[in-house]
Amino acid sequence: MTDRKAELAENLAEVEERIAAACRAAGRARDEVKLIAITKTFPASDVALLAELGVTDVGENRDQEAGPKAAEVPGLRWHMVGRLQRNKAKSVVGWADEVQSVDSARLADALAKAVRAVQTAQIRDEPLDVLIQASLDDDPERGGCPLSELGALADRIAQSEELRLRGLMAVAPLGADPAAAFERLARAGEGLRKDHPNAADVSAGMSHDLEQAITHGSTCVRVGTALLGGRGLASP
């Protein structure tokens, strides 16, 4: 085993134990929480090593970095988790299995149009799974749909044949108690599921706050630093 693979294996074991412990403390089963490895700025070779170690889901923040990695390491489930501009929709649907950062009707429409185009070209058959990014701090610079507008955006997505609404994603506000933020997200998720019962995914929790997120019902944690370290080299 290479030094880097050994390092990643050790980190993965530690993250897995943290998730398992948080699930036990919350009275939840470990298989209720998916781990997405966030590999932004790290090379495709690290993604390949994580895949060898059993990681199946990978998340990226930037389309231009993710596309080449997804092509180089096939067979994984790829998630777009960063803020997304509408003009990148066509490119993103070429590699992403899921977009977790849908925060406006205009972006949803752009993704639906892009999916329709690749379906017509017989590049992809399935709808695109999407999560609505909910804003927990109303900071426009960080993206996210205001909680008061979630219902309308969810209805818009549900009307699309090209998109499949899976749930909510959020990032805890900077400098705030993550537990309180994730409690708000949990309530928002409960409200969403009243009208959209299949939108049961809650993507919340990162390296520093995954325990609090799992306590409040997260079904998906997005972990980068704790898995890969704090310094990455840009992918070729």
From TrEMBL:
Parts forming coiled coils: 5-32
Keyword tRNA-binding among record annotations: no
Residues with PTM N6-(pyridoxal phosphate)lysine: K40
Pfam family, any one: Ala_racemase_N
Keywords: Coiled coil, Pyridoxal phosphate
CDD domains cross-referenced by the UniProt entry: PLPDE_III_YBL036c_like
Function of the molecule: Pyridoxal 5'-phosphate (PLP)-binding protein, which is involved in PLP homeostasis.
Family: Belongs to the pyridoxal phosphate-binding protein YggS/PROSC family.
Protein name: Pyridoxal phosphate homeostasis protein
Species this chain originates from: Amycolatopsis bullii
